[in-house]
Amino acid sequence: MDKSIIASEFSFKAVRSSGSGGQNVNKVSSKVVLTFDLVNSKGLKEEEKQLLQTKIATKLTQEGILIITSQEDRSQLKNKEIAIKKCFKLIENSLLVSKERKETKIPRAVKEKRLNAKKVMSVLKQNRKKPNY
Length: 133
Description:
Elements: H1 3-8, E1 11-15, H2 23-27, E2 31-37, H3 46-55, E3 65-70, H4 76-95, H5 108-128
């Protein structure tokens, strides 16, 4: 993965933010929409593209374009930086391959501790009953 090539393939669009915010929201286009064409990217290897397409399939369009929006700040420049960070973080986390979990046996001491706790609770409950004369 070559970050400089990927960063050059980003395209940005500024739109008006949604939600409350008064006049600033109505007149300033501070929300940033980042689009990244994953399928035609030259900064990713073919294996990486395949892995990304499976892992972030819900975030991709049918054409294989990743869309990320940011409207956290009033500044368009800060929103652009936030969107870039979000995109790189998403790509890096998706490219990580987690190792398989090895099943382990429950230790004998843990089993004994659980059984002893059950015995203690059983005795407690037996002591609550009325005596049988």
